[in-house]
Design a protein that fits this description.
This protein is α/β, with parallel strands linked by helices. It has three domains: 57 residues, no CATH class; 223 residues, Spore Coat Polysaccharide Biosynthesis Protein SpsA, Chain A, CATH 3.90.550.10; 221 residues, Spore Coat Polysaccharide Biosynthesis Protein SpsA, Chain A (Alpha-Beta Complex). 36% of the residues lie in helices and 23% in strands. The protein has 19 helices and 23 strands. The strands form four sheets. Strands 12, 13, 14, 15, 16, 17, 18, 21, 22 and 23 form a ten-stranded mixed sheet that branches. The longest helix has 20 residues.
Length: 590
C-alpha cells in the first residue's frame, strides 16, 4: 500500500510519465504535467505540497524597499520555565530577524532570572509573578514605538518582524496569519522547523475576533496604548483581551496577508472560564451584556448569540412561481419548525398557473392568518423586482428574504437571525446553507473575485471532510463578510429602504452581492453566522436553461461598479485561489 509520505514521489513519477508519453512538445504540456502531479495526490498532501511551494516563493521574494529600517520595535520575550537551550534558541530567532530596528526585553519569573540575565542579547530583564505583570512592566520600560510579545509557544521566522512592520504603516496594531510549527533539534544542536496547517487570515474582522482570538499572539501593538491599557491577569487570554479592549477603544488595525509566525502544537488554549470572562466583559462593554456565550463547533471558538430587544414582526418574503412541491416544502417547514412566533409569510407569486399551487395558496391562507400572497405576474422574471414588491407589501420591521427552494431545519433560526439584524451596526445577516444531503456546503458567505466575479464561499466542501485549518475556521465561526446570498438573509426594513432595495439592473444574478455592498458602503457590516443552518435545494425552481446574455451583462455591470473589491476582497486572503470557492492555496489552476 502506498504510504502518505510516498505520494509526492509517486505524483512526480506520474507527471514525468505524461512528458515521456510524447506530450512534451504539445501546447500546454506544463499545465498537463502539473495537473497529473496534483491529481495523483490526495487532498491533504496536495495542500501540504502547495504550502511548501508557497513558503519557497515567499523566501525567494524580496522584502519591500525600506522595510528594514522602519519604526522601532521592542520584542518582549518570555522565557519563564524554559531550559537554557530553549531560551538560547528563542533569542536566536529574534537576533536573526531580517528587520534591524528592534531591541529586546526578556521577562522571567524569579526561578529563571539568573539564566535569563546571562543572555547576551537581553537589553533588559524583567521579573514578575504573573505573565500579565511581566508584560505590563516590560511595556513600561520598552523603548520601541511598537511592542511585540513572544511567549514560550510562539516561533518567530526570519521575516516575522519585517512582515508585520511592512503592514503596520501608521496603524496601532498589526497581525498576520500563523501556522503550526513542529520544532526538533538534531544531535548537533541544529534546530529544524516543520511548518504545516497555515491559517490565512482575513483583514480586520470584528465578528471573527468575538468568535476566536484570530489575530494570534505574535502581534505588533503601539507601545503607548499597551502602557495605558495595562495587561490584565487572564491566563492564556491576555493578548486576546488586550486586542478586544484596544480595538473597542478605536485602535486601528493593519493586516499582513502572509504567515508571520508559528505556534507549537502543544500550545494551550485559555480555559473555558477565562475565555467566557474575556468575551462577556467585552460584550458588556459594547452594550450587550445579555448575550449568550457558548462553545463553538471547533475547540477555541465561541458562539455569541445576541438577545432580542423585543420580538419584532418579521416579514419572510418568498418569490415563487408554480413549483408546488418546492414551495410547499419551504413554507411548511417554516410553520412546522420555527419557534419565533411574530412573523408573516409574504409569498410573491410571479405568475403561477398551476391549479394545484393556486389551491394550496387558498388552503394556506385559511390555515394561517400570517400567510399572504402578493400577485406580481412579471415577465421576464426578476428576482430583484419581485423581492422589492414583497418588501413594499411587508408589515415587518425585519425583512427575511428567502428562496422558495430552501428548507428550515432548526427552531431557533429566526431568533438568531433577528438578534443579529437588530444590532444597529449590522446591515445584513446570512447563514450556512447546506445541500439536501445535509453534509455538503452550498453557502458560507460570498467571496468577491472568486470565479472572476463572486462565488459562494466553501461551496462543495463536506462537513465531515478533512478540511484545512483555514477552511474550518472560515466555515464554523461568526464573521464579517463582504456579502451573503439572498437565498436567506435578514435585514432591517429601514436599512433595506435606505438603499432602495435590490437594484433592478441585476435582474437574476449578483443582485444580492450588489445589495450587500451598497449597504456596506453606508458603514453597516455584513455578518455570516453558522449558528443558523438551512437546506438549499439550489435553483430547483428556475428553468434549466440559463439566460447567458443576462449573466454576462450582469457580470460586466458588477465589475464596472465594484471592480476594486472584485480585485481584492478584504475578507478573503489574497494568497488563496480565486478559481475555486474552497479557500485553499492555488494548485494547478487550469
Amino acid at each position: 500500500m502506498t504510504q502518505p509520505q510516498d505520494l509526492p514521489a509517486r505524483a512526480t513519477r506520474v507527471a514525468k510519465s505524461v512528458v515521456r508519453a510524447g506530450l512534451a512538445k504539445a501546447p500546454g504540456a506544463a499545465r498537463l504535467a502539473r495537473a497529473a502531479y496534483f491529481g495523483a495526490l490526495n487532498w491533504r498532501t496536495a495542500q501540504h505540497v502547495a504550502y511548501r511551494s508557497w513558503l519557497q516563493d515567499q523566501s525567494a521574494a524580496a522584502l519591500p524597499a525600506g522595510v528594514l529600517h522602519g519604526p522601532s520595535v521592542t520584542v518582549v520575550l518570555d522565557v519563564t520555565g524554559q531550559q537554557r537551550a530553549a531560551m538560547d534558541r528563542a533569542v536566536a530567532r529574534v537576533t536573526t530577524q531580517t528587520y534591524a530596528n528592534w531591541d529586546l526585553v526578556v521577562t522571567t519569573d524569579a526561578a529563571s532570572s539568573r539564566s535569563a540575565g546571562s543572555l547576551r542579547a537581553a537589553a533588559e530583564v524583567v521579573e514578575g509573578a504573573t505573565p500579565s505583570e511581566r508584560m505590563t512592566a516590560a511595556s513600561m520600560i520598552a523603548t520601541g514605538e511598537y511592542v511585540l510579545f513572544v511567549g514560550p509557544y510562539d516561533v518567530l521566522y526570519r521575516d516575522s518582524l519585517a512582515s508585520l512592520v511592512a503592514a503596520v504603516t501608521d496603524a496601532d496594531i498589526a497581525y498576520g496569519g500563523d501556522d503550526i510549527a513542529q520544532v526538533s533539534v538534531d544531535r548537533r544542536g541544529v534546530e529544524r522547523v516543520h511548518r504545516k496547517d497555515p491559517f490565512f487570515t482575513p483583514a480586520w474582522n470584528p465578528e471573527l475576533l468575538h468568535s476566536t482570538p484570530y489575530l494570534g499572539t505574535v502581534v505588533l501593538f503601539r507601545r503607548t496604548l499597551v502602557v495605558a491599557a495595562t495587561v490584565r491577569d487572564l491566563p492564556g487570554a491576555e493578548l486576546w483581551d488586550l486586542q478586544l479592549r484596544l480595538t473597542r477603544g478605536g485602535a486601528t488595525v493593519a493586516h499582513a496577508e502572509g504567515i508571520v509566525a508559528g505556534r507549537l502544537p502543544s500550545a494551550p488554549s485559555p480555559s473555558d472560564r477565562t475565555a467566557r470572562t474575556v468575551l462577556r466583559e467585552a460584550l458588556a462593554a459594547e452594550g450587550t451584556p445579555s448575550c449568550t456565550v457558548a462553545p463553538g463547533q471547533l475547540p477555541g471558538t465561541w458562539s455569541v448569540r445576541y438577545p432580542l430587544d423585543d420580538e419584532p414582526l418579521v416579514s419572510i418574503v418568498i418569490p415563487s412561481k408554480n413549483a408546488y412541491e418546492v414551495v410547499r416544502r419551504c413554507v411548511e417547514s417554516i410553520y412546522a419548525t420555527t419557534a419565533y412566533r411574530s412573523y408573516e409569510v409574504v409569498l410573491v407569486d410571479t405568475g403561477s398557473d398551476d391549479p394545484q399551487v393556486l389551491a394550496w395558496y387558498d388552503e394556506m391562507s385559511e390555515l394561517h392568518e400570517s400567510f399572504r400572497v402578493v400577485d406580481w405576474p412579471e415577465k421576464p422574471f426578476s428576482y430583484a423586482t419581485s423581492c422589492n414588491a414583497g418588501a413594499a407589501a411587508a408589515h415587518g420591521e425585519v425583512l427575511l428574504m428567502l428562496n422558495n427552494d430552501t428548507e428550515v431545519l432548526e427552531p431557533s433560526w429566526l431568533h438568531v437571525m433577528v438578534g443579529e439584524a437588530q444590532r444597529p451596526e449590522i446591515g445584513v445577516v446570512g447563514c450556512l446553507l447546506l445541500y439536501p444531503d445535509r453534509l455538503t456546503v452550498q453557502h458560507a458567505g460570498i467571496g468577491l473575485g472568486i470565479k472572476s466575479v463572486a462565488g459562494n464561499s466553501l461551496s462543495g466542501l463536506r462537513l465531515d471532510g478533512r478540511l484545512s485549518r483555514t477552511q474550518r475556521l472560515m466555515l464554523w465561526t461568526r464573521r464579517d463578510a463582504s456579502a451573503v446570498t439572498a437565498a436567506c438573509i435578514a435585514v432591517r426594513k429601514t436599512v433595506y429602504d435606505e438603499v432602495s432595495g435590490f437594484d433592478p439592473e441585476f435582474r437574476i444574478t449578483f443582485n444580492d452581492v450588489d445589495l450587500c455592498l451598497r449597504i456596506g458602503a453606508l458603514g453597516y457590516r455584513i455578518v455570516y453566522t453558522p449558528d443558523v443552518r438551512l437546506l438549499h435545494h439550489e435553483s430547483k425552481s428556475i428553468a434549466p436553461t440559463r439566460d447567458w446574455s443576462e449573466l454576462y451583462g450582469a457580470a460586466e455591470l458588477f465589475r464596472s461598479r465594484w471592480g476594486d473589491l472584485v480585485a481584492h476582497d478584504p475578507h478573503l486572503n489574497g494568497n488563496l485561489s480565486r478559481t475555486t470557492t474552497s479557500y485553499r492555496l492555488p494548485l494547478h489552476d487550469l
